[in-house]
Amino acid sequence: MPNLDVTIFNQNLKLSYQENEKERLFNAIDILNKRWNKFSNLHSKVSDIKIITLISLELQDLIGDYEEKLNNHKNNSEFKKIDIEEKNRELKNNIKKINKFKLELDDKNKQLSKIEIILDEIHNELMKIKKNILDNRNE
Asked: Which pTM does this prediction carry?
């Protein structure tokens, strides 16, 4: 494992790290040193351990906030998943209803076509009767 000489809280340290964790390590060191500098007004007024304790409390509070946000996001995701599943069921039911109505409409259209044929036949018969009546009248 490679070693790295770093400065954290104005202390020089030698750290061993996994190569794939190097970026995360640098980010963590940067965050800690920024927090240390944030409390620069307390340097030499209180002990370093007190400043480190304040930094730890602040970071722990941030972790708690992130955990709460993560839990809220997970809960929200679960509710959305349940809502999507319910909407999918409704959609499937509506598709079934639409298909049923389509079949009924097709059946009604077939019946209407038969009625139209019958009406055409009746019309033709009436026209023949009318013609016969007119022909008989003219004779």
From this structure: 0.53
